[in-house]
Design a protein that fits this description.
Length: 310
């Protein structure tokens, strides 16, 4: 590959990533998309690199996607789960990470429930850090794969209308999507119950809507976010039935629009709540494309950061 390096040694978030970096990641992901659709899906690009996956929070899709991306690049992989570690015995985060790094780890992929942990680690350890989700702050690789999937479907995103629908308040996906899509020139509207729209959101230069039907009529893409009941320590809406009535998307609703729109979801889907199954599995949906693109985009990030190790 002849793609130049990123402007950073870490992927901590999208907010401070340059547009040129996003374009490099996308160009590299295009090449890796060809690799993972070949009969032999492995390349030796990171053969001498050791990567530790540190997940202090439950994850299925992101964890598997990173693990597969690392194996496709021939990296040596260490998988760490906080639930079965010495963290439960009182060991500090930094001690845990330093113990892992003493095994000569080059890169760390970390998910943590506390915002800012990847940034903290980047200042205290030598390894290159990739943020796989920090609390309700950012989830940069999800935003990159979402935008990559949108470009695959719509072409250039400049001037395109993208809606983020649902639990904006608790979503790290929403914040990273806003940062990424703004850099690519898209127009963004957030839609959900007033209690699930953060107060600061208008300072990010996005439109705000509380009416699902008007948002669907406006947008080219609806990126529908999961209701994160596990992060809600109080009631943000009267009941799930009430939420479904006002913010659940069903196929008849899409059929009534005067144009086709693209439906996305970062997963896992609460079927029958955010989306009915006939929407999730319809021709409008590119949800499975997002999953495949996630491996290619994460391969691209790992490869580009990996080439900066030496």
């Amino acid at each position: 590959m002849t793609i130049s390096q990123l402007s950073t040694n870490h992927l901590l978030g999208i907010e401070h990533l340059q547009k040129a970096d996003i374009e490099k990641i996308f160009a590299t992901a295009e090449q890796f998309l060809e690799v993972i659709n070949r009969p032999i899906k492995k390349v030796p690009s990171l053969r001498d690199v050791t990567i530790a996956n540190l997940f202090f929070e439950n994850s299925t899709r992101t964890k598997l996607s990173f693990q597969l991306a690392e194996k496709r690049l021939s990296a040596d992989v260490i998988n760490f789960s906080a639930s079965s570690s010495s963290v439960n015995k009182g060991e500090t985060l930094l001690d845990t990470v330093n113990n892992i790094l003493s095994m000569k780890v080059d890169m760390v992929v970390i998910r943590h429930p506390s915002p800012g942990v990847p940034h903290y680690l980047s200042k205290h350890i030598q390894a290159h850090i990739i943020n796989a989700g920090d609390g309700t702050h950012e989830h940069p690789t999800q935003a990159l794969l979402d935008a990559f999937s949108m470009r695959q479907t719509l072409g250039d995103l400049r001037g395109k209308k993208i809606a983020l629908i649902g639990d904006i308040l608790h979503s790290r996906v929403a914040l990273s999507n806003i940062f990424c899509l703004k850099k690519l020139g898209a127009h963004i509207e957030v839609c959900g119950p007033p209690t699930l729209i953060p107060k600061y959101i208008d300072s990010l230069g996005v439109r705000i809507s509380y009416d699902l039907r008007s948002t669907l009529a406006w947008c080219d893409v609806a990126n529908v976010l999961r209701i994160q009941l596990e992060r809600q320590d109080q009631r943000f809406f009267p009941s799930l039935r009430e939420y479904i009535r006002y913010y659940g998307i069903h196929l008849e609703m899409l059929n009534q629009l005067d144009k086709p729109i693209v439906i996305m979801h970062p997963g896992p889907i609460n079927r029958g709540i955010e989306l009915t199954s006939d929407v999730a599995d319809s021709s409008h949906s590119i949800i499975l494309d997002q999953v495949q693109n996630g491996v290619a985009v994460r391969m691209a990030v790992l490869y580009l950061l990996g080439t900066q190790l030496h």
